[in-house]
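Before surveying the methods themselves, let us examine one representative protein, pairing a chain with its fold in token form.
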Amino acid sequence: MGAEKSQKKAYILLRGIFGEDLVHSEFSIGTEATDVFAGKKRYLPRLDLAVGPFNVSTQRDVNSRMIRAASDHPLIVRIIDIARQQSGGNFTANVNPHCLLAIEIEFSGSSKHILGDFTNASMMGFVGLVIGPSDEEYMNKIRRVSEYVRTLRVLEKAPSNLFTNVACMDVDEFFD
């Protein structure tokens, strides 16, 4: 199954879990925004999938509290546990996310693209998830990017919480 089919299948699955209003495909931070990102011509990152609640209005504190309250969902708790394990025991949630769960599906990009996916997932989600194909070789490429960032943190060459809110898994793990 390719990236596009995986994205569609994940979208349907997540809508069944979280409800239609809380799951968006191709979510831009400008989507439904009434805050500083509304209507301006500027770069606006886009996620493959986003699960709300969403933080797209000027009510940042209220929105962030709603997102934190929703983070006790069993699926979110599981992804947080995976992120904690993969980051060497650390997990630091994004304190001002655009959404509860930010998902990037990466099946064919370079290491730079993968690093960009980690960045978008981390900056836009309370917790982020990078999903790759079940192909072991490509998943190893994704995991090497994650390991690189973990090494930077250990060597104090990056902030100690950089990407600790992001998990990575293959598409089969995600659907299980």
Remarks:
- The chain has a mean pLDDT of 93.
- The CA atoms of residues 14 and 23 lie 7 Å apart.
- Strands lie at 23-28, 46-54, 99-105, 125-132, 166-170.
- The longest helix spans residues 136-154.
